[in-house]
Amino acid sequence: MISARVPALRADRDRGKGGGDHHPRRGGCGGGAAGGQTPGMTDVDVHEAHRAALAGEVVLLDVREDDEWAAGRAPGAVHLPMSRLRQDSVPTDRPVYALCRVGSRSANVAEALEQLGYSVANVSGGMLSWAAAGLPVVRDGNAAGRVV
User: Fold this and answer.
1) Which CATH number fits domain 7-11+35-137: 1.20.1070.10, 3.40.50.720, 3.40.630.10, 3.40.250.10?
2) For residue range 37-80, what is the model confidence (pLDDT) as tens digits?
3) Which of 79, 104, 112 shows the shortest CA–CA distance to 27?
């Protein structure tokens, strides 16, 4: 069964279309251990995520909300907020590396996508670890961004 922590994905599977009325927001990360480490879940560090995304080997899926995305994001990331995520909106042409602020929301998304058969990993530590590692954080127009 798909995790109730990602209701839109569960609703897609159960009804074959987007939906779900209740969606967690930024504060409702829930689940997973500190830093997004989830037992049994594949985690990648921010350096591997950056390298693989630059090489075009993976889709870097940012599941943070609009205000977080607008403030700063990893270059080349695809924005699909967890609160509006639907199975039919997730790219399928490459493996997916899910990313959020600290790694908990993305771990929940990665777990749900894995149960649906996606090749997926969670970016451990999220955007806070990304920025702390000195990796680029941008906003519109490739201006310098910040993690909120």
Assistant:
1) 3.40.250.10
2) 445 679 999 999 999 999 999 999 999 999 999 999 999 999 99
3) 104
Closest CA to 145 of 79, 135, 54: 135
Amino acid identity of residue 87, one-letter, is Q
Could you tell me which of 32, 8, 2, 36 has the C-alpha nearest to residue 21?
8
Euclidean distance between CA atoms 140 and 127, whole angstroms:
17
pLDDT-derived band at 119, boundaries 50, 70, 90: very high
pTM > 0.90: yes or no: no
Per the residue annotation, which of 74, 100, 112, 113 is the catalytic one? Answer: 100
Q: Is 29 a catalytic residue?
A: no
Look at residue 115 and give its three-state secondary structure. helix
